[in-house]
Amino acid sequence: MMWRLAILASGRGSNAEAIMRYFREHARIRVAALLSNRSDAGALVIARRYGVPTLTFDRTMFYRSEAVLEYLRAQSIDYIALAGFLWRVPVHIVRAYRGRILNIHPSLLPSYGGKGMYGMRIHRAVIDGGEKYSGLSIHYVDEEYDTGKIIFQAKVPVYPDDTAERLAARILRFEHLCYPPVIEMVIESS
User: What integer pLDDT is reported at residue 62 of this predicted model?
Assistant: First the structure.
């Protein structure tokens, strides 16, 4: 059986690219679509380079219609991975894919998660909070921001002279290494 994975991305697409690269020659898992809420997202360009079909949508399509869900079903999507996707996933999609939507977050949840906690905001908050460690969390997506069951976490040290940018870069390297194999583990254990 070939499992079909969709990626939701809002930004430049480095995690999306790590996922596409990891599964490019995979025997049982294929990245079958990349969806974005931003027509200028770098992730769309990367997906096209990998030959992955793309869809761009707006708030109305995502929240007030079932157009995105219908697209996922039409593409026979089995799992969804959020990769730098900043919108909360609507209830109708969460219900349709419960236990099959994963997200990666650049902190050790439940700390520094929730609405408005993304990008450099997280890393600045970690440094301002005097934390000794930050890291990444991979979790299932539920109806709220960053509250789904945690699947995997990795610690990354916070150095005394760290800037938010240096900490972000260090965590991002670990995200690229950790996220694709965790996705693979979840899918193959289903």
Answer: 97
